[in-house]
Amino acid sequence: MKLLSTGLHEIETAAELDKFINENENVMVCCGRMGPMCLPVYDIMEELEEERDNVKFAVMAFDNPEAGVIRNAPECRGFMGLPFTMYYKNGAVAHATSSIQNMKQVTGILDSKFGV
Question: CA 84, 7, 60 angle in degrees (round to 5)?
Answer without folding.
Answer: 30
